[in-house]
Amino acid sequence: MDSFALDVAHLFAGSLVLVSFMLLYQDRMFSLLNIFALHAFVVSVSVAWQAHIQNAPHLYITAAIALVVKAIVIPIVLHRIIVRLGIHRNIENVVGIGQTMLGGIGLVALSIMVMLPITTAEGTLVREDLAFALSVILLGLLMMVSRRNAVGQVIGFMSIENGLILAATGAKGMPLVVEISVAFSILIALIVIGIFLFRIRERFDSVDLHALDRFRGERP
Amino acid sequence: MALDVVLWGVLTLFATGAAAVAGARRGSTSTFVYAVALVVSMVALCMAVWTLLVDPAATPTVSLPIGLPWLGAHFRLDALAAAFLVVVNLGGATASLYGLGYGRHEEEAGRVLPFFPAFLGGMNLVVLADDAFTFLMAWEFMSLTSWALVMAHHRQPGNARAGYIYLLMASLGTLSLLLAFGLLAGPAGSYTFDAIRNTQLSTTVATAVLALTLLGAGSKAGLVPLHVWLPLAHPAAPSHVSALMSGVMTKVAVYGFVRIAFDLMGPPTWWSGGVVLLFGGASAVLGVLHALMEHDLKRLLAYHTVENIGIIFIGLGLGLAFAANDMRGAAALATTAALFHVFNHSVFKSLLFFGSGAVLRSTGERDMERLGGLIHRMPYTAFAFLIGSAAISALPPFNGFVSEWLTFQAILLSPQLPQWVLKFLVPAIGGLLALSAALAAACFVKAFGITFLGRARTSLAQDARETDRLSLGAMFVLVVLCLVAGVLPAYFIDALAPVVQGLVGAQMPRQSAFAWLTIVPIAESRSSYNGLLLFVLIAVAASLAAYVIHRWASHASRRSAPWDCGFPDASAATQYTAGSFAQPIRRVFGSVVFRAREEIDMPQPGDSRPARLHVHLHDLLWDTLYAPVAKAVGITADVLNRVQFLTIRGYLTLVSGALVALLVILAVWQ
Hints:
By secondary structure, chain A is an all-alpha fold. In chain A, 81% of the residues lie in helices and 0% in strands.
């Protein structure tokens, strides 16, 4: 594999991490959705590039699924949900943006420290790719933890899934079945979460998870 | 053929248990369930005896496509399994016979009937299992069904706690066995016993397996210090189930230990014998001391199970030590003694629990301080209980004596052991064994004397009635067995020969070949015992003495007033009590073992209230071993309780925090 192909693959994977960071500090609903669409788009481009350099045509299908479902359908659906719910206001981060970003940087450092030593036997592409993918996953987790709004957590969850796809396509020979089933489960998750959002709002007039906690008698 | 029949029998038992769920409310279900259990146990007993006597070399195997898909369920009937199958099904048959009469008056029939046959079936399966998975499944099934039986009368005070502690100890035991089998199977993960036999264990692994097996099988058998559940759980169950649990289930646990330590682990090491000896000696003495302090009839019997398990483990430990030093003959003697005691204890312990069950049913009382004089009201039960007491106290010509005598013969061979540690240890254990035998006799003088002799202490004991014929039948079957195994032990020892041959690679000399059915464990010049002659001697001497007394003693009636033998008051409360009987022994041993403290509450002159003596006993093992663990678990649970009520974000933080922490550990580790 020539170094140009490697560099481009790293470029895409690295920009996915960058977009993950961008997700962390979005505090408006629509911009969050837009960045998530960008996130999914970068994943699909990355997967397509992998398909090209690995000569694995089925990965093109994976890329197409990522592009259509996650970069287009899900953002549009979430957009409509947000409009119908009428929550265009800010997403409050629980922790300040500065701390969140610092934490994110720490997580990226951690994933590199974990991944690079244990994958010495693998090729360069796989090693770096796995490190980037783990960073994306950890950043997604961080996002789920640091958001108070249910929509924000849904996006965090989906970005974790993008990280998983990145990891899986970096390793050669992921069967298409896996990808299709993962995509399907994500769709199901979207439906379930969408229904939940409406149910929560019906009951509490808000999708702020604080309302749930109050309902359980945790907080005054 | 025999194996197939037994497996079909087990299936029948399970089906009966399931059917009993449906018909638990009808009165006839009780008779049906116990009758089926009786028939199946008898058939399985015949099959096991036939295998042991006629065809011990054939080891039929059956492999069924149930259980783990890549493993299946393997069953095998070798001589060892057959010997324990005899114990299980003899106990099962007599308990079913007893249950036919006793179970008719069960108030909670719906909680007993479905589990009784299932419990029997589970014990059969443990003995027959030939792979680790089947073994553990059957073991856990046996534990859970017996737990359900313990909880049958869950509304009675104390029973819920007994069930809880039993469940904890049973889980701990199964967990240990699970780990032990995991180690035995090795990295290849071959779980059939055949494959396990062929793997070589390193010393470290062998040590771990032995420790885990002692923990797992020992907690089920009631080895000190894992015995705490036994005196709580055994009395809580209905009496025929108590007999099964105490007489049979503990033997299944011994089977588990023998199967792993003698069969699966390969050649033993001498120190493993020493460790087993230590635990056995401690169990023997502590069990009987606890029993002496106990005035609840069924709890006393349960503590005696601890003692007898100790005796069995002493025999097994000696067997391991001798076998490790390639002293095959001595190892065969010690192992035979242990296995014979397994059989004997199952017989007389079942008998004693049946007796105490009869007492419990006719008086509703287990506390012997409130009994007394029952020999007049329940003469047959009293006779059966007396025979059982004599047998468990190791009095000739009954069976308990023979196996304990054989154990002593094995102990006397210990100077030939090359290791100095064992040279010193084994005689000390022998001393402990002698002590426990003597104390056991004292304890049963107390149990029989206070319960059946003297005069009734309460109106409950006054109005007692003899129990039903079926229960008596079950007891007298066991009485006959106690006598037969004591008088003709040679046949029993010969029947165990193929088992011992398989375990240690040698067997005792053929006993039934000696003249007059004398048993000669080592050589004629050293020691021999003839139960038959002794029995004849005792019978003739006793008859002669009775005849002489009745023929020549004076018939003139005498009146005496002044001294009354210290019994001037007609009140039954002035009789000797169980507490008074135990007091001297409590003063000798109790101050150390139980930290016993006596407090005399003496009223001032002129005060009319009675003087009182309070005795405070502590269970040292409970205080030092179990209480701290329970406290630590309680504190941890309190702390962790907070985690149960987190917010959604709290849970997310917890999960990702745990993930990050693990990754950090991974990063630092490299």
